[in-house]
Amino acid sequence: NTLTMAYAQNSQPVIDALHLLADLIEEKTDGEVTVNIYPDSQLGGERELVELMQAGAVDITKVSAGLMDSFSSIYGVFSMPYLFDDTEHFYRVMDDPEIVGPVFESTADQGFVAMGYYDSGSRNFYMRNQPVQTVEDLEGKRIRVMQSETAIEMMQLLGAIPVAMGQSEVYTSIQQGILDGAENNEFAITVARHGEVAKHYSYDMHTRIPDIVLIGTSTLESLTEEQRVAVEEAMAESIEFQKEAWSEAVAEARQQSEEEFGVTFYDVDLEPFQEAVQPMYEDLRSRPAHFELYEQIISVSEQ
Amino acid sequence: MFDAPIILMTTFAVLLLLGVPIGICIAISSLLTIFLALPPDIAMFTVAQRMFSSLDSFTLLAVPFFILSGVIMNMGGIAMRLVNFAKLITGRIPGSLSHTNIGGNMLFGAISGSAIAASTSIGGVMVPMSVRDGYDRAFAAAVNIASAPTGMLIPPTTAFILYALASGGTSVAALFAGGLVSGVLWGLGCMAVTFVIARRRGYRSKQQIEKGTALRVIWQALPSLCLIVVVVGGIVGGVFTAIEGSAVAVVYTAFLTIVVYRTVKFAHMQAILKQTLILTGIIMFLLATSSAMSFAMSITGLPAMIRDFILGVSENPLIVLLIITALLLVIGTFMDIGPAILIFTPILLPIATNLGVHPVHFGIFMVYNLCIGTITPPVGSGLFVGASVAGIRVEKALLPLLPYYLVIIAVLLLITLVPNTTLFLPRAMGLI
Amino acid sequence: MNLVRKPIDLLIFWVCSLWLLVMVGAACWQIISRFYFSSPAGVTEEFLRFSLVWLSMIGLAYVAGQRKHVAFTLLVDGTPKHWRRYWEIMIELTFLAFAVYVLIIGGLKAVNMTMMQLSPALRLPMGYVYLAMPISGGLLAFYSLLNCIQLFLKHISPAPHMEEPSQDV
Ligand code: NA
Ligand code: NA
């Protein structure tokens, strides 16, 4: 039995974790199940990869929970701003099968389910001219957002003007001044080189949107009971590996940002930001399933 | 080992020679190749999906919009006024209109970053004008096609941003600086060839514009020149993106010809829209099916084959770079530039850096190579679009393109073999 | 036969033309709205992308109806007119095959699969956007069959590519 794994553009820790997952699946099934990998968008972007999975051409892939919102709106909760207190809280939620289990199964009728998640860090504002230190600093600023209702609404509540555009246009748009800033994790500064045009990075940690590892339901059915257990174990091990690899890589990226790009990092007082987006949580009440997931998430918060 | 590419190229060539429309040739040969890897029903789905996702692109909006504004400019006399102005400036230099086309492509391509936007907007105006001034249509088309990719090398450009990302963080600023040099060299090479050919064929302005009429020419061209100021100024000033600028161009040209010059009447509208629709249909069909070809190559395992192949050949950096050149030229033939950068950078860059090649040098070299692929037969978006806007068949453009291919390749060899050609500027600026 | 072709041609032409003008307006609106209102620009961006898919797909069927798609005809140009007519019918059949297998069968599979997938900004089921593929396929199949019949009945010339499309007016 040979499985097809395909992924789009990714940071190194995620790539390493996916390759480890493939190796572990082969190892734990004593070679009964092998994995054939198509890296680096060879088969398309994340949306195309999910569709290929639905069609049966791809068995395992990894996409952002932001995209998963298109397939099952419950994933949208993970994109809510200031949802997690910190990395510990995020891990506690994502490692809790009672909380994420139903979410992961929610796409079963569409031919695929999630079998795990990877950390993709926190998204923070980085600006061209002045740092974001208070909510007022965002007033009237044009900030690039991902194509997502939640992201756009959050930006409006914070007083900024959301501009939805593709990731590859961000560098020149900041350079030309079409954008005042953008928001992303630290790799945007180093790997995507936005540190060349934006020097002020503020840790408001507005979102922690996980990456989701998907597997086809027909793929799961094609596996024996032992093989399925082996795949689950492999997934669990690769998740633990990825957490370590991610935090090391982020620490390196931060150091590189300061030394090589001269980027300044700012810590901000979060409370005014959290207050500004409260209307989004009020609106969430009208969607019971979403609100329930939200309550579960905050119930394991330690603050 | 290379059975998938062989099937792909053979079926494509046979269908092409039989006179089957090129879009169908690409779609069917890709479909047959995908059959090697996937069951038939899934293969059919993937071709449809590929076509869909390539059209689902904000950048490509520039195609119908610039075609529309170009047709309006031609029919409404804006183009004529601009050309008279260009003649006034360039005077009796042999091939002055072609030089204007090249310069326009470099400038507009630089701003928009899109070879397709440049060759539809600039070429759509300059080629018909050149023909009216006595230039051979195929030659005018070749000039436009050959110089269109310069905009993908002259910053700002998405290709280098993708490369920076795929290479794990090469300096974008350094790539931009080096890319500028390579793009300008490409453009100057095209101008040199144009100069020689135009002088031999006697492509000169027939009459010198006299002093007295010069002012009138400038006065008449003024509102039309404002188009350039509005579109270019708006983009550079951060008011709108280059793609949105294409819509502004439509509104401005429509306003100018309908309200100011009153050269476009309601009766002309149908002809304008019909021509736009047909050109859009032709070009988008080719762009959409070409994207299926990229997928066919990936799913049948070509990237891995190429990696194994290069690693097995040689240790000499020069030979490896030349082999990579040859491969990239072929890859550029059946892959879009964006996917090719994302897929092949992780494969080829480690091989090159192991041999001591600088990542910035390699990035410029790679993008330059892939740019050539967009204007070479059998499949090339720049070639298709340029031939379509010029209203000639693809094969007719090939002969006049030949000298341009030669000079473009000569520049490629220069930047490959003498790394300092492109690296001196980023070094001088302290970027690397 | 032209009684069938004409109305369809006109319908496609006017729908696509008006749509194109709406797209120009939407793109301008996107610029204005970004400056003066903090409106969700993602909506127009998505509308424009999806419109481009529809415009292109319907447009390519329309162009096939006009037999204006580019081809390499150097080798077949020399064949006698009589044979050329049957050859062109074969070529129309490749359009039909493409329309049926890729656009209709492949496209319908995509439509069915993506009905539950919502677009990020408009929250539109992607299946409706993908519908451009089978609809374009239907129109393409219609035109290629019509071209076959009219070629066979000698209503239309076998060599549409012979004359260069005129650019200058
Ligand atoms: Na450019
Ligand atoms: Na090519």
TrEMBL record, chain B:
GO terms for molecular function: transmembrane transporter activity. The chain crosses the membrane at residues 6-38, 58-82, 102-127, 139-166, 172-197, 217-240, 246-264, 276-299, 319-352, 364-392, 404-425. Part of the tripartite ATP-independent periplasmic (TRAP) transport system. It is a multi-pass membrane protein. This is TRAP transporter large permease protein. InterPro entries: DctM (IPR010656), TRAP_DctM (IPR004681). It holds the Pfam family DctM. NCBIfam families: dctM (TIGR00786). Belongs to the TRAP transporter large permease family. One of its GO terms (cellular component) is plasma membrane. Keywords: Cell inner membrane, Cell membrane, Membrane, Transmembrane, Transmembrane helix, Transport. The keyword Transmembrane helix applies. It comes from Natronospirillum operosum.
TrEMBL record, chain C:
The keyword Transport applies. GO terms for molecular function: transmembrane transporter activity. Coiled coil: none annotated. Keywords: Cell inner membrane, Cell membrane, Membrane, Transmembrane, Transmembrane helix, Transport. It is a multi-pass membrane protein. Belongs to the TRAP transporter small permease family. The complex comprises the extracytoplasmic solute receptor protein and the two transmembrane proteins. This is TRAP transporter small permease protein.
